[in-house]
Design a protein that fits this description.
This protein has 2 domains: 230 residues, 3-Layer(aba) Sandwich (Rossmann fold), CATH 3.40.50; 48 residues. Strands 3-2-4-1-5-6 form a 6-stranded parallel β-sheet, with helices on both faces. The chain has 14 helices and 6 strands. The structure holds one RNA strand.
Length: 301
RNA sequence: GCGCAGGUGGCGGAGUGGUCAAUCGCAUCAGACUGUAAAUCUGACGCCUUCGGGCUACGCAGGUUCGAAUCCUGCCCUGCGCA
């Protein structure tokens, strides 16, 4: 059996301690970090996303941070492309890639079996279909691609529009899902703190962010960088709720309370995604990761 | 003390004689995820269930009625106004 290049993934819900664990392991085992975070790719979104500072990086190179303007949507396909490039470059230098982050979709796009059809988003089509109702869109899809229609979430306009977009652009049905075999040997480590601990960490971290200028950051994005309220809302969590507060849609207490709840819900959605991965090695204590990594890098294969 | 308004599920809030275990929103729980993924979307949500249904419920206690969250009486409680 050929020796596959090794990659280590550190996943887990927000505030579970992925970042510092990743850096510690990268330092110990000669690694570099590839961030798998759909919001940390944007420049100027630092406090709200909990982006590592230069200093916290402790000399470990970080990839896929600050690679896009928040004005435009950064997509999973772009992530995959740039991520693959980063992996290749890290391996070339004889280092170990550590994919660290909480965006399960990005991790799968990069390493898993989620195929991303090579069809770019079409703003015109999307805008046109946006006006239609989900049942209408579903009926259209059923007609053009019964196979895809049978498995899709018929209420989710975003998915329906994407499926129709693929069909419209290629003139043929959406390719069925096929298992992709990764070219790498991958160790999946999942951080799963007990719920009470996680909730507390989420709460404490939110208080720190508020103290460290998170509100000013969002205001700056809107006033200085020209990021629309709508866009900030779409970016979710801190950007969504702080912008609503800045718009006067809610007072500060409501903003804080609702944001905290939203973050907790988000953490659960992340877990729902990661739980599906049968290869995930779940740990509660970050210290347990070391043994897994050591064995993975030393042993077999 | 008098007058007025009101007491409904974890919360907010509909319902004013039957089709109400009770619209809806929030919270909570579970889940989905083919280029927006911190986004988007779905289901469950009184208790029990062999999933057919059964049981207990709309402040408390009585009453009217074939039938009440809905009508009547008394009581308790809350808010506002007058004393």
């Amino acid at each position: 059996m050929a020796t596959h290049s090794k990659i280590i993934v550190i996943a887990g819900p927000t505030a579970s301690g992925k970042t510092s664990l990743g850096i510690a392991l990268a330092r110990k085992y000669g690694g570099e970090i590839i961030s798998a975070d759909s919001r940390q790719v944007y420049r100027g979104m630092d406090i709200g996303t909990g982006k590592v500072t230069r200093r916290e990086q402790r000399g470990i190179p970080h990839h896929l941070l600050d690679v896009a303007s928040p004005k435009r949507t950064f997509t999973a396909a772009q992530y995959r492309k740039q991520g693959q490039r980063a992996i290749a470059s890290i391996l070339k230098h004889g280092k170990v890639p550590f994919v660290v982050g909480g965006t399960g979709f990005y991790i799968d796009a990069l390493l898993g079996d989620t195929p991303l059809p090579d069809i770019k988003p079409d703003a015109v089509l999307r805008k046109k279909w946006e006006r239609r109702s989900a049942p209408e869109l579903f009926a259209m899809l059923q007609k053009k691609d019964p196979r895809r229609a049978a498995e899709i979430d018929r209420h989710n306009k975003r998915r329906l529009i994407r499926a129709l977009e693929i069909i419209e652009t290629t003139g043929s049905p959406v390719a069925p899902r096929t298992a992709r075999t990764s070219a790498y040997a991958t160790l999946f480590i999942g951080l799963r703190p007990d719920p009470a601990t996680l909730h507390k960490k989420i709460h404490d971290r939110l208080m720190v962010r508020l103290r460290h200028g998170m509100i000013a950051e969002v205001r700056r994005l809107h006033e200085k960088k020209g990021i629309s309220w709508k866009r900030l809302d779409d970016l979710g969590l801190e950007y969504r709720f702080v912008s609503r507060y800045l718009r006067g849609l809610m007072d500060r207490n409501a903003m804080t309370a609702e944001l905290e709840r939203a973050i907790n819900r988000y953490a659960k959605r992340q877990m729902t995604w990661f739980k599906r991965n049968p290869d995930m090695h779940w740990i509660t204590d970050p210290a347990a990761a070391d043994r897994l990594v050591k064995r993975f890098l030393m042993d077999l294969d």
